[in-house]
Design brief:
This protein has 320 residues and is of the alpha/beta class. The protein has a single domain, classed as Spore Coat Polysaccharide Biosynthesis Protein SpsA, Chain A. Helices cover 34% and strands 22% of the residues. The protein contains 10 helices and 14 strands. An 8-stranded mixed sheet has the order 1-11-7-10-5-2-3-4, with helices on both faces. Strands 6-12 form a two-stranded antiparallel ribbon. Strands 8-9 form a two-stranded antiparallel ribbon. Helix 3 links the parallel strand 2 and strand 3. The longest helix is centred in the C-terminal third of the chain and has 16 residues. The radius of gyration is 21 Å and the shape is globular. The N and C termini lie far apart (50 Å). It binds uridine-5'-diphosphate and the ligand O=C(O)[C@@H](COP(=O)(O)O)O[C@H]1O[C@H](CO)[C@@H](O)[C@H](O)[C@H]1O.
Length: 320
């Protein structure tokens, strides 16, 4: 892990408890910041209501942390819109936004379009397929943006069990994160190796940053925004907050394959042109009593030349 990342982990990695709600409300009052929460939703009738109700009850009605709560309908064919509206969200269909620019399918498409129909100086994105949702997912990621003017982009970090019909497998979730995104970032953007959940769907940022970034229209949006936020705002403007444990609906291997392809394409579009690091490493994280503890291992990079290029190579007669 780069020294810069180890230092970043000490300065820009927090827990939600580090900023009590009262502190956030006072900061919001003082700074005049406004908060929009956006839920991208494609056929989420089973879960969107509880997520919306949780945010509305805790962060709109009980305390005025959230000023705008929007469900962006990504072309649902179920009752997502009705359920979300009944729970108290504003609901806008992607086709209602920029009709002269026909919408394409994808999560990133609706996150990008949400910027045209929201007004908060801070925008927080929250998946609509979350289960056991806790409003701290929102207050945790919004907190640093209210109290630290130097921070512009905040990712949630959490334990990610894999919930199966047979039970919950601790740390089994985040499969594309562990198999695709984390290796990609460590190899090509090692300054982002400190992010525990680089693909997490819960993150918040200043509008003044988001409006200057391109949005990959598909599942590459999280990786693209993280890489571009680093390039645009610098590592010190990025942060992460531990908000506990995340449960969500899991896709099958085929779905994760399509997601991985989108992420790899988004990364390929941004690959830095500088030479590959001669001794790359991979930093992974484990939840311990001290929080998310990093462990770094070397990535084998040595390649042997073709055998024929060595004089020692004699074409040995094939043994019968
Ligand atoms: O084309 C899409 C794909 C996904 N989503 C939403 O984006 C969030 C994350 O998508 P998903 O749950 O499929 O990703 P996963 O969490 O499985 O990686 C969910 O609220 C989806 O409803 C969306 O709005 N449009
Ligand atoms: O992190 C991951 O590996 C994937 C899949 O998670 P699971 O293996 O189903 O827990 O989930 C995330 O990735 C998507 C692409 O960035 C995001 O859009 C989702 O919000 C996030 O859940």
């Amino acid at each position: 892990m780069l020294d810069e990342v180890a230092d970043w982990l000490r300065r820009r990695s927090w827990t939600a408890a580090d900023r009590p709600l009262a502190q956030l409300l006072a900061a919001k009052e003082r700074t005049g910041e406004t908060v929009s929460v956006v839920l991208p939703a494609l056929d989420e009738e089973a879960t969107v209501g509880a997520v919306v109700a949780g945010i509305r009850r805790s962060l709109v009605e009980t305390v005025p942390l959230v000023d705008e709560l929007l469900v962006l309908d990504s072309g649902s064919t179920d009752r997502t819109a009705e359920v979300a509206a009944a729970a108290g969200a504003k609901v806008i269909h992607r086709d209602e936004i920029l009709p002269e620019l026909p919408a394409v399918a994808g999560k990133g498409e609706v996150l990008w379009r949400s910027l045209f129909v929201t007004s908060g100086s801070i925008v927080a994105f929250v998946d609509a397929d979350l289960r056991e949702f806790d409003p701290v997912f929102v207050s945790g990621i919004v907190g640093p943006l209210l109290t630290d003017p130097d921070v512009a982009f905040v990712k949630a970090m959490y334990d990610r069990p894999l919930d199966t019909p047979g039970g919950s497998i601790p740390a089994g979730g985040g499969r594309v994160t562990e198999l695709v995104a984390r290796p990609l970032l460590n190899l090509h953007w090692p300054r982002l190796a400190g992010f525990v959940q680089p693909l997490g769907g819960e993150y918040a940022a200043r509008r003044s940053l988001l409006e200057r970034l391109p949005f990959a229209t598909g599942y590459g949006v999280e990786l693209g925004l993280l890489v571009d936020a680093l390039a645009t705002a610098g590592l010190d403007a990025l942060a992460q907050v531990d908000v506990g444990e995340r449960h969500h609906r899991h896709q099958d291997a085929a779905g994760l394959g399509r997601m991985s392809a989108a992420i790899l394409r988004t990364a390929a579009h941004r690959l830095p042109l500088d030479p590959l690091h001669p001794e790359p490493t991979l930093t992974q994280f484990e939840r311990t009593d001290a929080g998310f503890t990093p462990s770094t291992t070397r990535v084998p990079a040595l390649e042997r030349p073709p055998a024929v290029s060595l004089p020692e190579y004699q074409v040995c007669p094939r043994s019968s």
